[in-house]
Amino acid sequence: MDHPLDKDQRYTYADYCTWDDNVRRELIDGVVYDMSAPTWEHQGISMSLSRQLSTFLQGKACNVFAAPFDVRLNANENDDTVVQPDVVVICDRSKQSGTGCVGSPDMVVEILSPASQRRDRLEKLRLYQRFGVREYWIVDPEYKTVSVHLLEGGKYMISVFGDEGAVPIHILESCEIYLQEVFSV
Q1: Is the distance from CB of 118 to CB of 88 less than 8 angstroms?
Q2: Most buried among 4, 78, 98, 149, using CB within 10 Å?
Q3: Whose CA is closest to 57, among 87, 94, 95?
Q4: pTM of the prediction?
Q5: What angle do CA 28, 32, 34 make, to 5 degrees?
């Protein structure tokens, strides 16, 4: 791709697949968003979450994946939404395809950064709720908190946890994430 993308144009996954300029992007309802490189703190949090989840899931049916990992939420409809959450858990292996997930993962984790904060807290929250992501975590490195959103009756119910103790993952029976390890980067 030799020219910048038109931020006012609507795109699809087919367009997304043609962009070979090594810029990380997401599409939300056809609108393109460039993604900035994560900080070392962001990466440390992602690695800690992924490590804890991976250890728990060893030998189980679900899998954990870390970004970059494409999640095509509406692959069977308009196919105009491709996000790259920081961490995802997928329990239905038929959704794993190529470079990502086709359909909604069971769990999504987004780690806030100054550039993504508004989109993660508002737009993606509504998006994940709309597409039936059962558990959505928003990790705030600045305040060392985790907001856990559980889908109940089509709406998210929220709980907020501080930087100590263990937080249960509701979609994974008896799985807990130790926040002191997450925020000790």
Answers
A1: no
A2: 149
A3: 87
A4: 0.92
A5: 115
